[in-house]
Amino acid sequence: xxxxxxxxxxxxxxVPGDMPLLWVLRDILGLTGTKFGCGIAQCGACTVHLxxxxxxxxxxxxxxxxERAITTIEGIAETPNGxxxxxxxxxxxxxxxxxxxxxxxxxxxxxxxxxxxxxxxDIDAAMAGNICRCGTYVRIREAIKQAxxxx
Amino acid sequence: xTLSSNGMLIRTGILAVIVIVVVxxxxxxxxxxxxxxxxxxxxxxxxxxxxxxxxxxxxFAKDDLVTRGRYLTQAADCQACxxxxxxxxxxxxxxxxxxxxxxxxxNITPDRETGIGTWTDADLLQAIHQGISRDGTxxxxxxxxxxxxxxxxxxxxxxxxxLFSLPAVHNAPPANSLxxxxxxxxxxxxxxxxxxxxxxxxxxxxxxxxxxxGAYLAEALGHCGDCHTPRNRLxxxxxxxxxxxxxxxxxxxxxxTGDQDTGVGAWNNAELTSYLSTGHATGRGTASxxxxxxxxLSLAHLSATxxxxxxxxxxxxxxxxxxxxxxxKAEPAPAAPKLGTPAGIDSRGQKLFAGACAGCHDxxxxxxxxPLATLTGGRAVNDPSAANVAQIILLGALRQTIQGVxxxxxxxxxxxxxxxxxxxxxxxxxxGAKPSAITAEEIAELRRMQ
Lengths: 151, 450
Ligand code: FES
Ligand code: FES
Description:
Structural class of chain B: mainly alpha
Distance between the termini of chain B: 69 Å
GO molecular function, one term (chain A): 2 iron, 2 sulfur cluster binding
Bound molecules: FE2/S2 (inorganic) cluster
Radius of gyration of chain B: 24 Å
Domain 2Fe-2S ferredoxin-type (chain A): 1-76
Largest interface: A-B, 27 and 24 residues
Organism (chain A): Telmatospirillum siberiense
Number of helices of chain A: 5
CATH superfamily of the largest domain in chain A: [2Fe-2S]-binding domain
Largest sheet of chain B: 3 strands, antiparallel
Number of strands of chain A: 5
CATH architecture of the largest domain in chain A: Orthogonal Bundle
Number of domains of chain A: 2
Shape of chain B: globular
Oligomer: heterodimer
Strand order of the largest sheet of chain A: 2-1-5-3-4
Pfam families (chain A): Fer2, Fer2_2
Strand order of the largest sheet of chain B: 1-2-3
Protein name (chain A): (2Fe-2S)-binding protein
Structural class of chain A: alpha+beta
Helix content of chain B: 25-40%
Number of helices of chain B: 16
Order of helices and strands of chain A: EEHEEEHHHH
Strand content of chain A: 5-15%
Helix content of chain A: 25-40%
């Protein structure tokens, strides 16, 4: 049994330690807000937070997480920056098809956690690992700036 | 001066020249043997006061011959060279690109036509100890028989028993494509005369049983020097620079002498043991390329006592510095992407890192995903040649650890030579102690070697 702290709740899962967290979230726990894109840490769709740091859950062996707190898209609105980001996303209608957006929101929230007022270069560096095939990049950048300004 | 005393002088002079030539020949051309650094007297195994350093560890001594052979086959890492990527174990065919042409490893499964199924004990002993195949042809020293020559007969026969217990695989590897004169196998007789002592391991009477076991594991079985010791012009190990590191098949095998800054002198025993047994030590980095393979196929399977013995032996090897390597930088890079990279670095490197690498390796170099993916403190990012960083970017990494599979995707087909050079230089500048300047041409050369 592996114990995980997910969005504030303790969850016990009976899975092998080398199973990627993404599989545990989606297939074992039914938390399907986090998406599968590439499986090799190259698209960002599966991004979740470990203690506020963005990680690609598709390559994260669940057995190595230990005590670190996992936050997924289902729980991000409970965090101050996550709430701001989600509001800006809605206000600016960032989303196109939506597939990449859970990951985009997780990465954007993590950016605000460490850089409260990001400039374009900060945004590019933090968001480059999140691919959007619908090309919503311009709106993502605007929404991050708007969220940073909001109180 | 009389005529005869004149003649004497000339004779003495000639004699002196001959002595100097012979000494110089042995010093420069032949050089010391792999264990000469230890000094002291060696004795026959029966005459050694401690435990027999050959064979398997005591806890496996009662196992049957095939099981013991399996342990020794792993310790000798036969599988790495005798298996192609994704191929059946021991079926041969792995290509070794050398400056002289390409060699292919033979099939050592018990197949009677394409393997070694018809070989007698004497045939295998001759191949392993003397580098002479069953049909009398000479083997190339890519097969490390100058190391395996130290293997006890009983250990070679245990390895044979294990190999013969495996399923026969019918597979004829391609013929070697060596250019003249390297395709003249008989020339290897001269090489063997110079560089293969054709001697079994003899314990050093003045060293502990643990040291002698470590020496047997590192020299006879593990043949560490075949990658970590530089070679002379005749492709023999130059033990004047034993374990000081060199480049093998485009990968840099680092200095594993006791040098504090550029070798493993600053590593503690737990770190060395962890690296040998898992391919990773916290703060010291993760094995990749050929060393990862050596860990996964060989070293990880050894007993704890054998790991300790190798560590004890490594500790005794004289320190030799690698002047081009800095002491590794132990501190992580800043979390903010804008900080921590010296000016003048190709900005494409940072862009690529942001898109393809930061998700796992983090901007600090300390991976939140897996300790295996932590860059900080590792030798590769602290190597201003950037060779291994470039190789890992090109080829990715696949580790079969005891905890499970760990992968990094290969970027060789996604990015151009210019991009990979920029990325490698960015990684070394951000996470290492000294920047690198690998070029697109060098990346192209690494690709050609694959
Ligand atoms: S699914 Fe994890 S990064 Fe693409
Ligand atoms: S909104 Fe469709 S992939 Fe990003």
